[in-house]
Amino acid sequence: MKLQLLALIPLAAVSHAVHAQQFIAPPDPEVDKLGCIGFSYDLTLSHVTHTITSMVVSRVDSLSPSVLAGLRSGDSVTTIDGKPIKETRGGNTWRTPPGTHHTLKIRRGDRDLEIAFASGKLGLASDDPDVSRPCRPVPTQSR
Prior knowledge:
Pdz3 Domain, 3 helices, globular, alpha+beta
C-alpha cells in the first residue's frame, strides 16, 4: 500500500501546476489625455534643498517629437520652458495635453543648444507588457 501512495505523489504534483495568464490592462482614457515627451532622464537631487540639480537625458524614443527636434541621449537639460531645472518639479512639467509646445535649453559637450518640440500622443500598446507605448508626434492641421 505504501508503494502505491508513493507512485501517486508525482502525479498529484503535476496535476496542480499553475499556469501564468497574460493580463492586458484596459485603455485608460485619463492617460490618453496627457501628452508624451518621448525621452527618459536621470535626475540628481540636492540632499539639502530637495531640488533638482541636474537632468541628463538617458534614452530617446525613435520617431518621438523630441528626437525629431534633435534631442540626444547624454544631453544635459539646463532649462525647461524658460525655467531653470532647479525651479521645476520633474515629472509634473510634462503633464500637459498632446500638442503642448516645450522648449529645452541643453548642454551637449561644450555647446549650449535650444530644442523646441510639441508633446506627442501615446501610440498603441504592445502585446509585450515590458514594452512601453511609443510616443509619436501629433498630426498638425494643414491650412
